[in-house]
Amino acid sequence: MYDSRLAAYAPNNGLLARNTNRVLSVKDGRDANGAVVAANVVPEGATAVAINVTIAGPTGPNFLSVVPGDAASFTASTINWP
User: Fold this and answer.
1) Virtual torsion, Cα 9, 10, 16, 22, nearest 10 deg
2) What is the pLDDT of residue 39?
């Protein structure tokens, strides 16, 4: 769905700075290079999606929260790293 290391996701690629956010869509199916291979793969009326979150090459301790796109804030982290 998304790999910040790939240029295909510009301008939302590269390191994520502390205390910033990115809004990403899960609606399209993508290949390993980030190219859309299937548009609108999330069925109309879907109420949830499953995700796998991985952190690669951290530059320091931090956390990441994954929340619905309409969330105004978050109360818990999805993944933490030292």
Assistant:
1) -70
2) 93
